[in-house]
What we know:
Layout: H1 2-28, E1 32-37, E2 40-45, H2 46-54, H3 64-70, E3 73-74
Antiparallel strand pairs: 1-2, 1-3
Amino acid sequence: MINIIIKGILNRRKVKAIKTANKLARLTKKKHLVYKHNLNYVIYTKSQLKKAVLMRKFKKGLHVEDVERKAVYITTT
Length: 77
């Protein structure tokens, strides 16, 4: 029962992050990525992602391409 509730909460968070990423992509005309970090979904633009990798917000040795492959959702614009 608890697993069903947790899955519902995580699904709601994912849908909200995707909607926010689409809205930001339409406004800024940039590509946005939705990435799962711990139990939260984080939205990065491509340039923010490059800066985050350089600042070691991800594990050592991870490249931008690796994060893009692991992204939950990538906007089309």
